[in-house]
Design brief:
196 residues; alpha+beta; Cytochrome p450; 3-stranded antiparallel beta sheet; two-stranded antiparallel sheet; elongated
Length: 196
């Protein structure tokens, strides 16, 4: 969010008058742009490195000069590379753009993004994980504005371990909330901190 203020502003605008209120399931479901942001986040920085599959039949890789794979061989499918494969996207997959899931690329290849696996092997917990991340994101957008503290960021690189994480982080947080006590209910507070 800190690197994409336009996206953050659009999410906050989608919350409308519910910036400090609890949201119903129906209201959460209506936040379609936020769904696109989360899908793009999972695509751009997959939560998992990839998956390993054991081949059940012999196979020759197309376009690889005829590399032969044999039944029983294990192959590793790296989600990061798969989700940035230009053959699966009509727009530039190297850019973070939630619009990938709204516009031309909406009907992408079935396995163009498999952050939680795909087909009958997809992770059973993915729906719960997506729902929890959506709730957390909504609550944060109701009270927090993220900023990009470029002075503390050396590169925009990521470390790929068991999960993906930023190599260096420089983020500012601004807390905006309305004080809830009746005697000072019209006062807005703004407090900023820098987390490095």
């Amino acid at each position: 969010m800190s690197k994409h203020s336009r996206v953050q502003a659009k999410i906050k605008a989608g919350l409308g008058d519910n910036k400090n209120n609890r949201l119903t399931i129906e209201q959460l479901d209506s936040l379609v742009y936020l769904d696109c942001v989360l899908e793009e986040t999972f695509r751009f920085i997959p939560p998992d490195a990839g998956t390993v599959h054991t081949l059940t039949v012999d196979h020759r890789l197309p376009g690889s000069g005829g590399v032969q794979l044999h039944k029983g061989d294990e192959i590793f499918i790296q989600f990061h590379n798969l989700s940035r494969d230009k053959r699966c996207w009509k727009t530039d997959p190297q850019l973070f753009s939630p619009e990938h899931f709204q516009g031309e690329d909406r009907d992408l290849h079935l396995y163009g993004v498999i952050s939680f696996g795909g087909g009958h092997r997809q992770r059973i917990e993915q729906d719960l994980a997506r729902f929890e991340v959506k709730i957390i994101t909504v609550r944060m957008m109701q009270y927090v504005t993220f900023g990009d503290d470029r002075s503390n960021v050396i590169t925009d690189e990521y470390l790929q371990r068991l999960t993906t994480m930023p190599k260096n982080v420089g983020v500012t947080l601004s807390f905006d909330w309305k004080w809830r006590y009746e005697d000072i209910s019209s006062t807005w507070f703004r407090h900023s901190i820098i987390c490095v």
